[in-house]
Amino acid sequence: MPQTIALVDDDRNILTSLSMTLEQEGYTVRTYTDGESALQGLLGKPADLAVLDIKMPRMDGMELLQRLRARSAMPVIFLTSKDEEVDELMGLRLGADDYITKPFSQRLVLERIRALLRRNDASRAEASGQPPGGLLVRGDLTLDETKHTCLWRGQPIQLTVTEFLLVKTLALRPGLVKNRDQLIDAAYGENIYVDDRTIDSHVKRVRKKFRAVDDEFAQIETLYGIGYRYKEQ
């Protein structure tokens, strides 16, 4: 069954050209020209992945993402302009999985979508060498890859695809330091360029989510100038 991509942008030229490219690759595409119609459509009928512009009428991409994240961990890619660095960081903190800077090539968008969908599929599949059922348990942390669920001390933590992969990568080897390049490869795949600040923003958001249910959460440690590690329990 074809995977469904939602495109949300008030630029109809982008919607038309990108839709044609994705449909030629076998995807089903749904398009929206503003945030409000996209919110109604995606909550009623979720997609496998959404590509959101930031600046749109009726509801911008930031608010749309925030509302979607209250209900869904659907993979999201943001489209930003070159002068919107602050928006990129804010988008990542709100839960975007990736971002692409305008102007962009159709091929770049297609490759990022493929990579994110592969990561989403992989995070839900049972990993080789994992305990039966795809469960990873580290003290108070439980990750279920087949269901894409995360529990901390029995409390559910809703993680995006990227956040889930980052937590899993760190928790697989407690005490082992992972530098940002290693985390980028684990969360985004090799040969995908992502700025270091992207990983930092994702880690900050992960900590915030865990601290919402446990204000003493301190398992993900920062080693300044080196990277991150999951503290052994």
What's the β-strand tally?
12
- What low-confidence regions span 5 or more consecutive residues with pLDDT below 50? 126-133
Q: Which fold does the CATH topology of the largest domain refer to?
A: Rossmann fold
Q: What's the quaternary structure here? A: single chain
Secondary-structure content class: alpha/beta
Rg to the nearest angstrom?
A: 18 Å
Query: Count the helices. How many?
Result: 8
Highest CATH level, the class of the largest domain: Alpha Beta
Instruction: Give the CATH H-level superfamily of the largest domain.
Output: Response regulator
On the 0 to 100 scale, the average pLDDT is 84
Trace the largest sheet across and list its strands: 2-1-3-4-5
Helix fraction, binned, reads 40-55%
Shape: globular
First-to-last CA distance: 42 Å
H/E order of the elements? EHEHEHEHEHEEEEHEHHEE
Summed up, the domain count is 2
CATH architecture label of the largest domain: 3-Layer(aba) Sandwich
Major β-sheet, in short? 5 strands, parallel
Q: β content, as a range?
A: 15-25%
What does the model show?
- This protein has helices at about 10-25, 35-45, 60-70, 85-95, 105-125, 160-170, 180-190, 195-215; strands at about 5-10, 30, 50-55, 75-80, 100, 135-140, 140-145, 150, 155, 180, 220-225, 225-230.
- It is of the alpha/beta class and about 230 residues long.
- Strands 2-1-3-4-5 form a five-stranded parallel sheet, sandwiched between helices. The protein has a four-stranded antiparallel sheet with strand order 6-7-8-9, with helices on one face.
- The chain starts with a strand and ends with a strand.
- About 35% of the residues are buried.
- The model is unreliable at about 125-135 (pLDDT under 50).
